[in-house]
Amino acid sequence: MKKLLTGIPELDFVLRGGLPCHRLHLLEGAPGAGKTTIAMQFLLEGRERGEKGLYITLSESTDELQAAAASHGWTLDGIDLFDLIPIEAELDRQQTVLYPSEVELGETMRLITDRIAEDQPDRVVIDSLSELRLIAQDQLRYRRQILALKQALQGRDCTTLVLDDLTSHVGSKELHSLMHGVISLEMIERSYGASRRRLRIAKMRGTDYQSGWHDFAITPGDVLVFPSLIAEEHGAEFEPTTMSSGLKELDDLLGGGLTRGTTTMLVGPSGAGKSSLALQFIMSAVRAGDHAAYFSFDETYNTLSRRSVALGIDITEPIESGKLSWRRANPSRLSPGEFVWQVRREVEDNQARVVVIDSLNSYLSTMPEENALILQMHELLTYLNNQGVITILILAQQGIIGDVENPVDLSFMSDAVVLLRFFEAGGEVRKSISVVKRRTGIHELAIREFQLFPNGMRVGPRLLDFQGVLTGVPTYRGTLDPLVDGEGEID
Predict the structure, then answer these.
(1) Who's near 130: CB < 8 A, 6+ residues apart?
(2) What's the CATH superfamily of 3-228?
(3) Is 3 helix (H, G, I), strand (E, B) or coil?
(4) Where does the record place the KaiC domain (predicted)?
(5) Over the range 239-260, which residues count as b (16 or more CB within 10 Å of their CB) and which as e?
(6) Residue 130's closest CA among 176, 180, 172?
(7) In the structure, what pLDDT confidence band is assigned to residue 121 with cuts at 50, 70 and 90?
(8) Structure pTM?
């Protein structure tokens, strides 16, 4: 079946090539969901391809349509605009035995079909069916007129997109059976932050399409659709080599480093050094010639760059040279689908080999459906693993010292887990590091001290004389503190 491009590449991807030609399609959604903007792009795409477009409006004036297009930097020149004002005032109700609504609806439908027959357009938009439903006042009469419109369009070689704002829920789903395709738009209002828009293909006869909900955003001059990720459709051949962290002791702890195509989770309370450890891996990848991407939900660029300078691993030059991509992800403005799409663009367009997500806690706060988010994150991690990417997730635990709880189940989301903890010893608050899980090989079972210095970081010796380090309150079993020499410095 021949298809028409909609002017929105990602929507065409979801539709597996676009809208079927010479058919009647329904675009439905509440007011403000983006129907008019999508319909305009549909006609503008036809204009770019030399096709004739017709916009029939029953709800907005042509001036309002022109203003809406201008807000996106578009012009509707070359597209016929038919402002169909309700003709109720023109009807002489005293001279007819028919119901006024029946006369008005029939005359309105005649004007629509006559204009289409006169212009012979390739693409038609009718905005909106809600006005016709109000004129009809009767569901049966309204359905018959829509069926008559469908029959009148047959054989005219035009593809028609009709809009419906769902203001009348009574019988709104009954139109689905008359349509060749149905695209549903939805706008979700959050308790705080930007509204979230998403769409789904509810129906598309005779063609394949990607089912499910897909987030989308309307920006000045564009509609961006973020197709939901299906990890099984994306795979790449790669060697499961190991990437060094640049610190021998840390590599020994990890059994050699991080393996490509795996996910490593850095877990610990706030301030334990998770982000600093991620920076160490990022800079090691950049020095090895790989492209890396850092997605930060929590920190601003200035804070992170100052941290990197303090550790002696300045990220400014790699970012300016394009070897390292840094993106600020605002959980109150970003939809989960858009975030997944941003990660995919780094991997597919920039060939990122290392991806850091800081942090998983903030990602899970992007919307209240936490279970769905975890499944979506699992699909993203599977995709990254299939692409041979080293993924580093940062997860902040609840609590500081003592009982520290994990907000999510780590068992199926990671191939390796690095645990950072605080503990008390010698009148000081210290940090420990250990690897509690690694699927791709053998790792050390030791618990080591972890320190951050102005010129870098250090993984110290095993804490052999302490018991209960992971609880935060260890018991010293030795005769002399092996961590501190006579001058109070780490030995």
Answers:
(1) 59, 164, 165, 166, 167, 168
(2) P-loop containing nucleotide triphosphate hydrolases (3.40.50.300)
(3) strand
(4) 2-239, 241-473
(5) eeebbbbbbebbbebbbbbbbb
(6) 172
(7) very high
(8) 0.88
